[in-house]
Specification:
Layout lengths: L2 H21 L4 E9 L5 E9 L3 H13 L1 H11 L7 E6 L2 H21 L1
Parallel strand pairs: 2-3
Antiparallel strand pairs: 1-2
Helix pairs in contact: 1-3
Length: 115
Amino acid sequence: MSIRTDKVSSVVQRILGEEMLQLELPFLTTITKVEVTPDLKHGKVWISVMPAGEENEAKILNILKHNLYDLQGALIKSMEMKIIPRVRFEIDHAEEFTAHINDLIRHAHDDEETK
């Protein structure tokens, strides 16, 4: 990523984070990262939902999808750029994957100690 895409990603994350606070989402939802394409036309917003679960994640994605027009509008109003990234939301499972890997390592370590 270039410095420009990093800066745009940071601004998008800040603006959307503020706007998501206004939505009063039913679960703790955080933006973990934002990825913007080099041409700045598209952006992928990675979110995590607590408590985790497919039902909770689907509910949050539906709320965000329903409010996407307003969220995109906030970006357009707040950013002084010719091209504003069109965003879409994805669930970030990195934390769950990390926890799973740590559990596997801990389990393998415990198995070696019992031998």
